[in-house]
Amino acid sequence: MELKLGFIGFGNVARAFSRVLAERRSFLSREYGLELKTTAIATSNHGCVLSATGFDLVKAAELSEQGLSLTNLTDSLPVPDPLAVIERCDVDVLFETTTLNVVDAQPAINHIKAALNRGIHVVTANKGPIAFAFNELTTLAAKNNRCFFFEGTVMDGTPVFNLVERCLPATRVLEFSGILNSTSNLILTRMESGLSFEDALSEAQSRGIAEANADYDIDGWDAAMKAVVLTNVLMGGQAHPSQVTRQGIRNVTARDLNEAARSGKSIRQIARSARTSEGIEITVLLEEVPAASALGSVRGTSNVLLLETDLMGEIGIVENDPGVEQTAYALLSDLLRIRESVAPPD
Amino acid sequence: MELKLGFIGFGNVARAFSRVLAERRSFLSREYGLELKTTAIATSNHGCVLSATGFDLVKAAELSEQGLSLTNLTDSLPVPDPLAVIERCDVDVLFETTTLNVVDAQPAINHIKAALNRGIHVVTANKGPIAFAFNELTTLAAKNNRCFFFEGTVMDGTPVFNLVERCLPATRVLEFSGILNSTSNLILTRMESGLSFEDALSEAQSRGIAEANADYDIDGWDAAMKAVVLTNVLMGGQAHPSQVTRQGIRNVTARDLNEAARSGKSIRQIARSARTSEGIEITVLLEEVPAASALGSVRGTSNVLLLETDLMGEIGIVENDPGVEQTAYALLSDLLRIRESVAPPD
């Protein structure tokens, strides 16, 4: 089966995914009968291009990393902007990986709508559209009988949505808590080891862990968005990002961390969502937790999500030391789920 | 859709599952279109019975708990033994939950074979058959075009096999480590808090956590069996329980635990499986690990499994404070997977 792919946004994640696809080409053909061809790429700074014959994705990644225009690719047809790409492309699956807009998640929402309306399956690693428009977008996908997957929006490729949907049937998620922002957790745990806030932040940025705008991480926006996504998808909530009680990590001092450590505690930025008599309450707050606990033991860029359920008690899922490869894996796992949904296994 | 159920073994787990089915009857009918009828129950001490009209499962659980024979159930037809039940019953799904036999996993393996050969789907929470005969049983199930699921054999209802099979496509498990035996972990962590070995063991037994024969837990047999199951299912191994290097917790002293604690460590019984030049090496050993780590922070009856993978790095799954309800959930999730496989969702 041939699937034609398109990319809206071609940053770190999409480029890492491109390399995985190139490395695993024969594996994907052999194990999944998948032949992939990329016929559309839209970027904000390196051009928007279409191709009838299919791009060399590794070459595209290299050009983009060198700051060169994708119009240098063989057989590329330039088009004016991402929406024009979506309207004119011939693709089966579109990967939306533009950067987070915390105000209204645009233009990503419009990209996804345009693609679904054209009958294109959509995969996104952008949490904005799910935080702001989950119900609208899933309804639109169902109406068009297309897949809309977003495993990469929380904890990279670690199965979170798939875990609940595919492995916890008949189970209701009552509440959750988690460490969801790698940059903040890296900074807090590096500061525990004696680094300054600034040096720890530099490390996150040089490793490509921090969001394009690191303020989103540090001020708790990223964790808040993810908490809203989890609330709306896993708990059937109708939450909006503006209702999250949100606390960033800017004011944590080495002294705070040392004092906590002396009593066997760690300070962590913890996202929580719980049902109250007033509805669902979502918070992203600094908390002192026992160092030897499921939350306190999570160090560096690692993440954890603890789900309190009705039938299965509390289960947790942990992602240890993720890098951009793990987000790339989210796109691959969503692609393979589309493959399965288009032609179910015997 | 009506599914007729049978039980071979009707201990704590099967009885807890019976109560879940009774409590969720209308939910399962509404959400999954499932109408369930139990037409066969085999026990070692309370009789083996068939029914054409279907048993009252809650009544059956009560009789069994009162030490009374199941032949007291309305419309019950007594048969001599479990194999006779399997040969003569009219069921679609058989739940094999007899107790663990660490020598050769019999008679459970024969029960499962007999059922699959009669075209009956099988669910088991008994790790013996998977540790000793995984390949043979899955081959037999495939030949008969029947489901054979066993999510409850490791970490109760926490998705372990489903996680890897359904949520980590294209991923290879390279190695794993985990805390897999609740009784041992409860004893170690209670001893850390000052309890004696004997009092901690009594607690595990009174809570129904310990295996019928607690020696299997304490001497590491249970964890070893689970490690073999994980190795063979998740890593494509061909391991046999006899090859596990196994260390129990009998000789751990309060002094050992206190000394570890003074340097920020915890002693845990850790199961590991890793690929070496000699093949796959499986161990269940006492290890000193940092208290504030994914392994060291797991306390009481909680379990954890850390999977090192090729494409997704390291991910972990945690089950916090499980009881028998969580093992009952494993049977439910396997039943719902059979439901899905018999009639896939639209």
Structure write-up:
The structure is a homodimer of 346-residue chains. In chain A, helix 6 (127-143) runs parallel beside helix 11 (221-234). A seven-stranded mixed sheet of chain A has the order 4-3-2-1-5-6-7, with helices on both faces. In chain A, strands 9-11-10-8-12-13 form a six-stranded mixed sheet. The radius of gyration of chain A is 20 Å and the shape is globular. Chain A has 13 helices and 13 strands. Chain A is of the alpha/beta class. The interface between A and B is large, with 48 and 48 residues.
Largest sheet of chain A: 7 strands, mixed
With strands numbered from the N-terminus, the spatial order across the biggest sheet of chain A is 4-3-2-1-5-6-7
Strand proportion of chain A, as a percent range, falls in 15-25%
The averaged pLDDT of chain A comes out at 96
Helix and strand succession of chain A?
EHHEEHEHEHEHEHEHHHHEHEEEEH
End-to-end Cα distance of chain A:
15 Å
* Number of strand elements of chain A: 13
Number of helices of chain A: 13
Alpha-beta content class of chain A: alpha/beta
Most extensive interface: pair and counts? A-B, 48 and 48 residues
In oligomeric terms, what are we looking at? homodimer
Helix content of chain A: 25-40%
Gyration radius of chain A, in Å: 20 Å
Unreliable runs of chain A: none
Shape of chain A: globular
